[in-house]
Design a protein that fits this description.
This protein has a single domain (18-156, 208-243), classed as CNF1/YfiH-like putative cysteine hydrolases, CATH 3.60.140.10. The protein is of the alpha+beta class. A six-stranded mixed beta sheet has the order 3-5-8-7-9-13. A three-stranded antiparallel beta sheet has the order 1-14-6, with no helix packed on it. Strands 10-12-11 form a three-stranded antiparallel beta sheet. It has helices at 47-58, 127-132, 134-142, 166-173, 195-205, 228-231; strands at 18-22, 68-69, 76-78, 86-87, 90-93, 100-104, 108-114, 120-125, 149-153, 163-164, 183-185, 191-193, 210-213, 237-243.
Length: 246
């Protein structure tokens, strides 16, 4: 699969029939604050440009993505059955060609598959969804032994940029005291949070030991990534995964 040079092809030992990629902000038709590859219709971008971007995206996919109406929650849906956007932040698929998709612009996209290539999933994991259990719910919805799953963490707000209040730290530490290691105190009473570490901790706790990716910071790389925290008015990247073959 030939992708635009700037897009991300996950480096993980997924089965050959598992296909996935993550777009960047480059290579599309949007202008101004949304330049240039914004596939998000809820960003106040020119809808004509967004549809043109989605047309380019479709060239790399077997079917249109099963888009979600993301609400920073923990709901997981079966993408195979979707006919319209559902209020959810994760989806799973078992049928060939069904494309699970999430949009991000600081929140962490998590792509998942099993070693047999029988099921895939995609989750949108900001701090609210992550602390609430969106990854645990996605793993559960995939319906296979978690020890046979692998995950890829896509670009998100990095640990040097993600400043949060005490309530965010408490939301994680109350669930698992080990989460304290993912927070660094600042002199003003705020904390810096490592979303990638928190994601790995949550995955490990539910049995997913094969975790790849992580580390690409959306905030500190404005040439490649959209960032809501950095820009407020901005586009979205898309993380997509599906099953190919028979």
């Amino acid at each position: 699969m030939k992708l635009p040079a700037d897009w991300i092809s996950p480096q993980w030992p997924a089965p050959a029939r598992v296909k996935s990629f993550i777009t960047t902000r480059n290579g599309g038709f949007s202008r101004g604050a949304h330049a240039s590859f914004n596939p998000g219709l809820r960003c106040d971008d020119d809808p004509v440009a967004v549809q043109a971007n989605r047309g380019l995206l479709a060239e790399h996919l077997p079917q249109p993505p099963r888009w979600l109406h993301q609400v920073h929650g923990t709901e997981v849906v079966t993408a195979d059955a979707l006919t319209t956007e559902a209020d959810a932040d994760a989806s799973v698929a078992r049928q060939r060609g069904t494309v699970c998709a999430v949009m991000i612009a600081d929140c962490m996209p998590v792509l998942l598959c099993d070693e047999a290539g029988s099921v895939v999933g995609a989750a949108h994991a900001g701090w609210r969804g992550l602390s609430g259990g969106v990854l645990e719910n996605t793993v559960r919805a995939m319906g296979v032994d978690a020890g046979r799953l692998m995950a890829y963490l896509g670009p998100a707000i990095g640990p040097a940029a993600f400043e949060v209040g005490t309530e965010v730290r408490e939301a994680f530490v109350q669930h698992d005291s080990a989460a304290a290691a993912a927070f660094t105190a600042k002199s003003d009473g705020k904390w810096l949070a490592d979303l990638f570490m928190l994601g790995r901790q949550r995955l490990a706790a539910c049995g997913v030991r094969q975790v790849y990716g992580g580390g690409d910071c959306t905030v500190t790389d404005p040439q490649r990534f959209y960032s809501y925290r950095r820009d407020k008015i901005t586009g979205r990247m898309a993380a997509l995964i599906w099953l190919d073959g028979v």
